[in-house]
Design goal:
By secondary structure, the chain is mainly α. The protein is built from three helices and no strands. The protein has one domain.
């Protein structure tokens, strides 16, 4: 939940900086048109939750294999583990891009 709060705070800061920059240029401040559908924050939160679900599923499958439960194959465990790893790496790259974009915006001259 703290990641969602951090992201929301980041978005609010970026919006206020945009408003300030537009006011300094004497440009009219207009609201962006309302777009129906989930917001970016919602979509990002869903993606993080999906990555967490994949990781939990892989962990449960590995535990079941380690306990010797029937019907759990090592190939399924390895595939689930790799899916969890790839999804986490992708989410990490998205996070890195967001942080870099935020840093670039913060370094822009006012």
């Amino acid at each position: 939940m703290s990641q969602g709060i951090e992201f929301n705070r980041l978005m609010l800061e970026m919006r206020s900086m945009q408003t300030e920059a537009m006011a300094r240029n004497n440009a009219p401040v207009t609201q962006p048109p309302k777009v129906e559908g989930p917001s970016f924050a919602d979509m990002l939160g869903q993606a993080v939750n999906k990555v967490n679900d994949v990781q939990q599923s892989a962990k449960q499958l590995a535990t079941a294999f380690e306990m010797g439960q029937s019907g759990v194959d090592i190939t399924d465990v390895m595939i689930a583990s790799q899916k969890a790893s790839v999804s986490f790496q992708a989410m990490t790259q998205v996070r890195n891009k967001l942080v870099q974009a935020y840093q670039d915006i913060m370094q822009m001259p006012m």
